[in-house]
Amino acid sequence: MDTQERIRETVNGHPVVLFMKGSTQFPMCGFSASATQILKACGVDKPFTVNVLEDEEIRQGIKEFANWPTIPQLYVNGEFVGGSDIMREMYQSGELQQMLAPK
């Protein structure tokens, strides 16, 4: 399975996926820490996370997958949402909470 297929499978296989540097317990950059805090504030305690520092192919491949140059990247129900700045804006407007609310 190639990298893009692995990413697609991960994104489609979980309701909330965060590609980040580090883990939710030990984020390895401020943007990843911010993204996990925003998700927690939205009630998502255990998002499926992928530590891009553990796999160089995923680290590069995820940038191509969404045509988005930075990490972290959030996916909800298979759709790309954005990075930590977009997450923050959506959280402040209430849009992210609505998107992540249980259906």
Task: Give the gist of this structure.
The chain is built from 5 helices and 4 strands.
Question: Going by CATH, what is the homologous superfamily?
Answer: Glutaredoxin
Major beta sheet, specifics?
A: 4 strands, mixed
Strand content: 15-25%
Tell me the number of structural domains.
1
Oligomeric form of this entry?
single chain
User: Within the largest sheet, what's the order of strands?
Assistant: 2-1-3-4
Task: Give me some keywords for this one.
single chain, 103 residues, alpha+beta, Glutaredoxin, four-stranded mixed sheet, 17% strand, globular
How would you describe the overall organization of this protein?
By secondary structure, this protein is of the alpha+beta class. The chain has one domain (3-100): Glutaredoxin (3-Layer(aba) Sandwich). Helix content is 48%, strand content 17%. It is built from 5 helices and 4 strands. A 4-stranded mixed β-sheet has the order 2-1-3-4, with helices on both faces. Strand 3 (73-76) and strand 4 form a beta hairpin. Helix 1 crosses helix 3 (56-65) and helix 2 (30-41) packs parallel to helix 4. The chain is globular and about 35 Å long. The N and C termini lie far apart (32 Å). The model has no long low-confidence stretch (mean pLDDT 96).
